Amino acid sequence: MPDEAGKAGAGGAEPASTRAGDAPAPAGSSPCLSALAAIPGNRVAPATPTPQHGDAACRVIDPVRVEALAIRGVGGGATVSFEPPPLLSCAMARTLADWLDRSVQPLARGYFERDLTALRVGGGHECRRRNRATAGPVSEHATGQALDIFAFRLGNGGTASQVVVETPSGLVQNRFLDAVRQSACGAFMTTLGPGSDAAHANHLHVDIQERRSRASRFCQ
Ligand SMILES: [Zn+2]
User: Fold this and answer.
1) Does residue 205 sit in helix, strand or coil?
2) How far is the CA of 149 from the centre of ligand 1 (A)?
3) How far does the centroid of ligand 1 lie from the alpha carbon of residue 193, in Å?
């Protein structure tokens, strides 16, 4: 049952992403990055975005390169790796870490009895307009506040399987994706995916860009 699976991670241990210990912060790192780096299993490093077109609208606050994020696995800590590692704002990386640990991993366990092990992603920091138009508002990707997810990998090695956002196979994969998307609507400011519009037919777009009012989340 999706509801039960979604709640499975709510009890028990502290979410991995809020378990920041007292490890000394790497020199020069932000409080956000220090908190992320203190969690065993997280592989995040400060990053320098390449200046693109010198566009001030494309500034990333507190940029980090995310290689892997820790989640609570069945036998203890597990990690989700990012292929390829995106450049994100640290705030986005933290929101992502929370969502993977509290929602996606419990759903992966509930639907497939496997740990979430990797995400195939795109569209971390990229200085561009929305939907690659030549005019109009700057994309949430321009500020590192957004991520596009193309596939979820479950399990390791020879028994690993993949749920591809564009082409889920079978009822269980479809239900898993629906539940993942629903949970994303609560975790992020905007969630778009197949069926929203042509630009999002093959991936799930999530971002934490503030909208006009805090209450107006956009979920399609
Ligand atoms: Zn996107």
Assistant:
1) strand
2) 8
3) 9
Q: Which residues are found with C-beta within 5 Å of the ion, ligand 1?
A: 123, 148, 205
Asked if residues 69 and 35 have their Cβ atoms less than 8 Å apart, the reply is: no
- List the chain domain ranges: 2-219
> Can you tell me whether residue 137 is helix, strand or coil?
coil
CA of 130 to the centre of ligand 1 (A): 8
- For CA atoms 66, 72, 77, 79, the dihedral sign is negative
DSSP 3-state assignment of 194?
coil
User: What distance in Å separates the CA atoms of residue 198 and residue 220, rounded to the nearest whole number?
Assistant: 13
Q: What is the pLDDT along the chain (220 residues), one digit of tens a residue?
A: 344 433 433 344 444 444 444 444 455 578 999 999 999 999 999 998 766 545 777 888 899 999 999 999 988 889 999 999 999 999 999 999 999 999 999 999 999 999 999 999 987 777 878 877 788 888 888 889 999 999 999 999 888 999 999 999 999 999 999 999 999 999 999 999 998 888 889 999 999 988 766 566 788 7
Q: How many CB atoms lie within 10 A of CB 135?
A: 6
Helix axes 105-112, 170-187, angle to 10 degrees: 160
- Is the model's pTM score more than 0.85? no
Cα(154) to ligand 1 centroid in Å equals 23
- In angstroms, the Cα distances linking 49 to 23, 58, 85 are 27, 9, 13
Give the Cα separation of 54 and 57 in Å (integer).
Answer: 9
